[in-house]
Amino acid sequence: MSGTSSDSRPQGREPVPHGERAKAVGHIVFNLALLGIAVMMFVHAGGLPSSAWEPIGSGSFPRLMLALLALLSVLMIIKEAAKLRHTSALPSGSVGDWVWRHRLAFGVLGLFTLYAIAMPLVGFRWATLPFVLACQVLLGARRPRQLAIAAAIALFMSVGLDALFRHVFTISLPRGALL
């Protein structure tokens, strides 16, 4: 043999120390957050107005899907907690390194949170335009041509989709309480 390993990782990339424990902890934290969101939405789905055409109620299907999501999150937490027993503790600084490696995902999540807060206030059109544009800038649109394309996409996603839903599907997207 020539001394090369049969490892399938690309050359120059070393394995992350204690990577299995970090993955397990990340999966547990993510699924705990997902479980909390599912439970909160499950409670709110019970308050959806009922319809004369749906005998089981308009909240039944969302509640079924959210209960399934909660169950899968619990199962994933149990599975990942079992992995923790077979791994060693994380070295100091590894959480900061993990957060830095995933900074774009956290940035998009933060932008989405702002979008969800802005939607009921300013409506679909005026919340979507800056959200889509900011996401594209965050993910790499920096040059004038890229920014022009990003602006065109953001404009289409906000005004175009609003017009499509309003005039073709006859579905009104949120208008916003402030506008």
TrEMBL record:
The chain crosses the membrane at residues 28-48, 60-78, 104-127, 147-165. This is Tripartite tricarboxylate transporter TctB family protein. It comes from Franzmannia pantelleriensis. Keywords: Membrane, Transmembrane, Transmembrane helix. Pfam families: TctB. Residues 29-174 form the DUF1468 domain.
